[in-house]
């Protein structure tokens, strides 16, 4: 019985460590060193949808700081009592229910989970590809991609962000992070690519 308890405790600890956000999110090399499978997942999304790894990772950082079960904060009733959440956004990429269903249908990834990194990073790539197709945003224009991600393609066309100075500021931060990640990745990407025969070099 004691042995079983120790095994369960060890498994719980491993799961917790696996789902915990990276200890150092400001350096993409540190992120991929700690989360060894993430580079391969991000590389696959890059190849499938066209946005580069730094853009994808900067957008995801802004949405959840790499927390797998992130949710919007609850509203307050009478300034004290926890109320409902502002939206159904959930997971690494903070995706709403209806948008996630659209992604599952259009991408063919029917069993995707918002709390699974590989699926979430693929979603961000897919959404950026839709932004390119629907409103003509370059797939590595992190600033405008984030504005379209936050406001939706209809809102982006109507420039709803013009009335949201805070959002424009956040989009600028996403752009800066993407640039920083891009420079950092140049110094370390070789070690994540693996040998020449690795399928996702």
From TrEMBL:
- Signal sequence interval, chain numbering: 1-20
Instruction: Note whether Signal occurs among the keywords.
Output: yes
Domain Transglycosylase SLT: where?
A: 6-188
Q: Which InterPro entries match?
A: Lysozyme-like_dom_sf, SLT_4
Which chain positions lie within coiled-coil regions? none
Q: Which SUPFAM superfamilies match?
A: Lysozyme-like
Q: Which UniProt keywords apply?
A: Signal
Q: What is this protein called?
A: Transglycosylase SLT domain-containing protein
